[in-house]
Design goal:
Layout: E1 5-10, E2 13-18, H1 19-26, E3 31-32, E4 39-43, E5 49-52, H2 56-83, H3 87-90, H4 95-103, H5 110-115, H6 119-141, H7 148-152, H8 164-167, H9 175-187, H10 194-197, H11 223-229, H12 242-248, E6 250-256, E7 267-275, E8 283-289, E9 292-299, E10 302-310, E11 313-319, E12 325-333, E13 336-342, E14 345-348, E15 350-356, E16 364-370, E17 376-380, E18 385-391, H13 403-409, H14 413-419, E19 427-433, E20 438-443, E21 446-447, E22 459-460, E23 470-471, E24 478-480, E25 486-489, H15 501-504, H16 514-524, H17 531-538, H18 544-550, H19 561-568, H20 579-599, H21 614-622, H22 632-655, H23 664-667, E26 669-672, H24 680-685, E27 689-695, E28 706-708, E29 720-724, E30 726-731, E31 739-742, H25 759-764, E32 768-769, H26 774-780, E33 783-789
Parallel strand pairs: 3-33, 5-8, 12-22
Antiparallel strand pairs: 1-2, 4-5, 4-33, 6-7, 6-25, 7-29, 7-30, 8-9, 9-10, 10-11, 11-19, 12-13, 12-18, 13-14, 15-16, 17-18, 19-20, 20-24, 21-23, 26-27, 28-29, 30-31, 31-32
Helix pairs in contact: 2-6, 4-11, 13-14, 20-22
């Protein structure tokens, strides 16, 4: 950037702006179509926009406008993908993705769905879309404002329609892959092996529905649904190790009641765990208008705040893991493959044709098919079968993209819970309010399955196992002001002991409990918690798993005695500067490979490529059984010792011969690249963030979750690829004391000073103030801008006669 510098006076606060990015922004057109009244915006040092609107819809207009200003390529790419319009940009390889996404667009009465929301929510949704479109109009008129990707791919952003927020539905959770896997294991008489990779909680034996021919089930049955879950066919696009990402994505969240805090006010903490990327998964904004005052992290293309607080309540979220998708195998008519057997007769699939534009080629005319269960994802006329998928997020009323608006407007526990009725994604919501209440409500679409079907294996589509609609919010568990004085969730199985798990069949697939156990340990031991305590807990690197594994280390021969002593003396904290942590992580990774090789027969490795569940692995090492051989304990110890020796050899090769020089952070580095960085022009325009000097602690099982992908085949399999990039700790009622981080920054534009400005603070765990009151916002502001509505056109005077 050139050295142009310009000082802006803001209420006595001088702000220094530099570079063409800021200059170009200042030159943008002032009149914005869709805005009713002027909106003032104060920006702080992190580029957080504090919006001051005169009406609530205008605040949401600013939300759409600002996120489009900061993240237009991300917004447009997601929009195109959801609407099935990537092939027109990237070519024929994207036709399957476009077909799959069009297949799962909402097909009901979109206008009626929108009209079912309260009028204010409808107005806010329209205003948000108008804000996006207003920014698109600006950058179209002033191409220098367009993010670089649009020039590189010779395109312009798509206009939005408010009904897009109703029609875009795909929220694939991955349950269907597991169903196919279990059916194929059952066909080989090996279904019990599935529990090694996915132990079921509460304890449950999967049921193969009556009439299912498991031997006929193949991966091909997922068809277009597999396309939805697979990485896009563009070189360098993130998701190189999609299985690792899905296995680790989650979050931590806890709420602490006033009786257990130092201030007598509740504390709410939340740190969602998602794949690292440029930009990060959250965009922070503060929306203010009469009747609205809300701040926190949101997502591009979703109006409002996902994790944050308003003037009365704070709210966080983690994944709850409802099983929301089921595969149905249909028997089709040999004489007419569009007819399928259902309820003793034949039904005809509905056929819909859609035209897909393809860059450099003629348009493709594609047929989509639908049954009573849902979209048809695969058809095999030769085998007289087809596959349909039922998904909660396709149901009428499951308008997840608008749920934030009601949440942001809620003022108390009943209003908050009411707003969750339209929240589709499977979510643990944590809650606290200025009256001292705390709570937890599980939310998301919950299928009402037929008897004989637990959702873990595909079912025949003959009508016996069709869903009977969705269960109400009241069917999901909740707690209000728990006697313990706090509530925590980290994606573990948290159904209460008295919950009817077998009859409601919420889920049997959850995350390991190690993060939750550590949080539980700390919260129980902290009778007067402070904000600093929650910040420290979010960055806690003590591994409950590692402490138990190290205790199992057997006697090690003298040549490696020093390394064994290093590990035995370790405190279990997976810090970046720890040599013992580096040794443990490499050892653990090698143990995963070794145990998988011992327990999974070669004939099943195509279905169970690994790894073994960490919970199962720990249990088996504690109590080895006959699967280790005639002398299980001896075989266990031999495996532990051999992998330990291999880990030492690997570390000597990677980090040098002296254990004193080893550092976990030297392996566990953070490097963020543009999703399309494999394209040289993109890599040149978007510099990488982080690199070898960006060392991180943590692992997949510490509260400060920072996972890595040891099976991805990368040059450094220990590089951190995901974890918490947005972190928040709320002092409920004394809001200006709340803290946050949002890595790597607000903007996706490398010309912006907010492209990667959070990196140093994030690496240090240095949480930043989240100003909320008018006084605090004014004190923090370094830049002011005003959005002006477009001027109405003057009537044209009649020409003189």
């Amino acid at each position: 950037m050139h050295a142009t510098r310009r000082a802006v006076l803001l209420g006595g606060v001088a702000a220094t702006l530099s570079g063409p990015w800021r200059d170009a922004e200042a030159a943008s057109p002032a009149g914005l179509a869709g805005l009713a009244q002027p909106v003032d915006i104060l920006e702080d040092r992190w580029g957080i926009a504090h919006v001051r609107a005169r009406t609530i819809p205008d605040a949401f207009f600013a939300d759409g406008y600002i996120v489009a200003r900061d993240r237009l390529w991300e917004l447009d790419f997601g929009h195109r993908r959801s609407l099935g319009r990537l092939a027109e940009l990237f070519g024929a390889a994207f036709v399957p993705s476009d077909t799959a996404n069009r297949l799962v667009l909402f097909r009901g009465d979109a206008e009626g769905e929108l009209a079912a929301f309260p009028p204010l929510v409808q107005e806010c949704a329209r205003a948000y879309v108008a804000g996006i479109n207003a920014r698109i109009a600006e950058v179209t008129a002033t191409p220098s404002l367009l993010p670089a990707e649009f020039a590189l791919f010779a395109c312009t952003p798509l206009q939005w329609d408010v009904l897009d927020l109703i029609r875009m539905r795909a929220e694939v959770t991955g349950n269907t892959r597991a169903e196919i896997r279990r059916a194929r294991l059952a066909a080989r008489g090996a279904l019990a092996h599935d529990a090694l990779v996915t132990p079921l909680e509460p304890a449950h034996v999967p049921t193969v529905p009556d009439g299912l021919d498991t031997g006929a089930v193949t991966e091909a049955d997922l068809g277009l649904f597999e396309v939805l879950q697979a990485p896009l066919p563009l070189a360098g696009l993130h998701a190189a190790d999609d299985a690792t990402r899905r296995r680790n994505e989650g979050s931590n969240s806890w709420v602490i009641a006033p009786a257990r805090t130092a201030t007598g006010r509740p504390i709410l903490a939340n740190d969602p765990h998602l794949a690292f990327g440029v930009p990060g998964p959250r965009h922070v904004i503060h929306l203010t208008a009469p009747g609205l005052d809300v701040i926190g992290g949101g997502a591009a293309g979703m109006p409002g705040i996902m994790q944050g607080h308003n003037a009365r309540i704070a709210f966080g979220r983690t994944n709850f893991h409802i099983d929301q998708e089921d595969v149905f195998i249909l028997r089709t008519d040999p004489d007419d493959p569009l007819r399928y057997a259902h309820q003793g007769g034949w039904k005809r699939m509905e056929q819909v044709e859609t035209r897909i534009a393809v860059r450099g080629e003629a348009d493709r005319l594609v047929s989509l098919y639908y049954t009573v269960q849902g979209p048809v994802v695969a058809r095999d006329s030769a085998r007289h079968r087809a596959t349909a998928v039922s998904a909660t997020w396709l149901a009428p009323g499951a308008n997840g993209l608008l749920a934030n608006i009601g949440i942001n407007l809620a003022r108390d526990w009943p209003g908050f819970r009411e707003a969750l009725r339209v929240h589709t994604s499977p979510t643990n919501f944590t809650y606290a309010d200025i009256d001292g209440n705390i709570g937890w409500q599980a939310a998301g679409g919950l299928p009402h399955r037929a008897d004989g079907h637990d959702g873990l294996v595909p079912a025949p589509g003959d009508g016996r196992y069709d869903w009977q609609g969705l269960q109400p919010l009241e069917a999901l568990p909740s707690r209000f002001n728990p006697a313990r004085g706090w509530f925590s969730t980290s994606n573990e199985m948290n159904l209460p002991p008295d919950y009817p798990a077998e009859s409601r069949r919420v889920s049997f697939e959850w995350r390991d409990r190690f993060r939750h156990e550590r949080i539980e340990q700390v919260l129980d031991a902290t009778p007067r918690a402070t904000l600093a305590d929650s910040v420290a807990l979010q960055h806690d690197t003590l591994s409950m798993l590692a402490l138990q594994m190290v205790r199992l280390l057997p006697d090690i021969p003298p040549p490696l005695a020093a390394e064994a002593a290093l590990l035995r003396a370790w405190n279990g904290r997976v810090t970046a500067d720890s040599a013992a942590a580096a040794l443990y992580e490499v050892w653990w990774t090698r143990l995963q490979h070794a145990l998988h090789a011992r327990l999974i027969p070669p004939s099943l490795r195509d279905l169970l490529p690994g790894p073994i569940s960490a919970t199962v692995q720990l249990s088996l090492f504690h109590s080895p059984d006959s699967r280790f051989g005639p002398d299980p304990a001896q075989a266990r110890d031999r495996m532990l010792a051999e992998t330990f020796a291999a880990a030492v050899a690997e570390l000597r090769d990677r980090l040098g011969p002296l254990p004193a020089a080893w550092r976990w952070g030297a392996l566990h580095t953070v490097t963020l690249k543009h999703p399309l960085a494999a394209i040289p022009a993109v890599a040149a325009a978007f510099p990488a963030i982080g690199g070898p000097a960006a060392e991180s602690g943590g692992d997949p099982y510490t509260v400060m979750a920072r996972w890595y992908s040891p099976h991805a085949g990368a040059a450094n399999p220990y590089a951190a690829t995901g974890g918490a990039s947005y972190l928040m700790v709320c002092d409920v009622g004394a809001w200006d004391r709340s803290l946050f981080l949002n890595f790597p920054g607000q903007s996706a534009d490398p010309r912006s000073p907010h492209y990667a400005d959070f990196l140093p603070a994030w690496l240090r765990g240095a949480m930043q103030p989240l100003p909320f009151s008018a006084r605090a916002v004014q004190a923090a502001a370094i830049r002011r801008l005003t959005l002006h509505p477009a001027q109405p056109r003057s009537p044209v005077a009649p020409a003189p006669r």
